[in-house]
Write a structure and sequence with these properties.
The protein has 94 residues and is mainly α. The chain is built from four helices and no strands.
């Protein structure tokens, strides 16, 4: 895509992506409780590989592109809510 992604674009999309994560995983927390730069795995949100598959499915339906399990950038993409949101902003077709 040729659209430039600004920090404002990312900030505006963060709550929407947080809501998708909470909804897709039925988390017992509000989307606002997910810190943008906190790790999604381990000590952060505590997600596992199954959770990532669920999130990837919801993202593909919502934003019109697929997150593939064999993508070597997945570790970077799923580092934090901000990293995931940035990737969505760069790749989205919807």
């Amino acid at each position: 895509m040729s659209q430039e992604i600004t920090p404002e674009t990312i900030e505006a999309l963060l709550p929407e992506v947080a809501e998708l994560i909470v909804s897709a995983l039925n988390l017992e927390m509000s989307p606002a409780e997910i810190e943008a730069d906190a790790p999604l795995f381990g000590d952060g949100l505590g997600l596992d590989s199954i959770d990532v598959l669920e999130i990837a499915l919801v993202i593909s339906k919502r934003y019109g592109f697929q997150l593939k399990s064999d993508n070597e950038d997945n570790v970077r993409i799923f580092t934090s809510l901000r990293a995931l949101t940035t990737h969505i902003a760069e790749q989205r077709t919807k």
